[in-house]
Specification:
Elements: H1 8-27, E1 31-34, H2 35-43, E2 52-57, H3 62-71, E3 75-80, E4 83-87, E5 96-100, H4 102-108, H5 113-116, E6 123-125, E7 128-130, H6 135-152, H7 160-171
């Protein structure tokens, strides 16, 4: 893959990711970062700009994670596609922390809890080490989201090619 150099806004996003991960660990909240940042974390390097941090958390710990986000200056924005979106003014209009809803998590869990919440941290971006789904878990989530998008007549995932390249690289690593 080509070398990607993050801009200032993405550097801020990485700081938010680090703060979210560290606060969750400190409070014993078991989160798993999926989607773009999760795959980049498995790869060990940023591959593109991101517009969100996708977070998996158990239904029992969801309110605790939401409180962490609120304490970090985020506010509840809206719910969309099985994720509750949280925004912070200093991160621009199109960046969110997205926390999966219990209903969506239940659908994703069909792949197996160990695929979404592996025992240890397997991802890293810079000095931030975090939990992310296994490659099998990421692929399953991607399949579920693609299926829902097709059923609803929504546009295909806009970073599909990048994600497929990462799947290929990580599968052959």
């Amino acid at each position: 893959m080509d070398v990607y150099i993050p801009g200032d806004n993405q550097e801020k996003q990485l700081e938010v990711l680090a703060e979210l991960v560290e606060a969750s660990k400190k409070l014993g909240i078991n989160i798993s970062i999926f989607g773009g940042y999760g795959l980049d974390g498995l790869y060990g390097s940023l591959t593109r700009d991101h517009h969100d941090i996708d977070v998996l958390v158990s239904s029992e710990q969801r309110n605790d994670l939401v409180q962490v986000a609120l304490d970090m200056g985020f506010y509840e924005h809206k719910e969309s596609w099985g994720k509750k979106k949280y925004k912070r003014k200093d991160l621009g209009d199109v960046f969110y922390v997205e926390v999966v809803t219990p209903e969506k998590l239940q659908k994703f869990m069909e792949v197996g809890e160990q695929e979404l919440f592996p025992a240890g941290d397997a991802a890293h971006l810079g000095n931030t080490v975090f939990k992310t789904p296994t490659l099998k878990g990421h692929k399953y989530v991607h399949e579920v989201q693609t299926k829902v998008a097709k059923e609803k007549g929504w546009e295909e995932y806009r970073h599909k090619e990048n994600k497929e390249k990462l799947f290929d690289i990580l599968s052959n690593a």
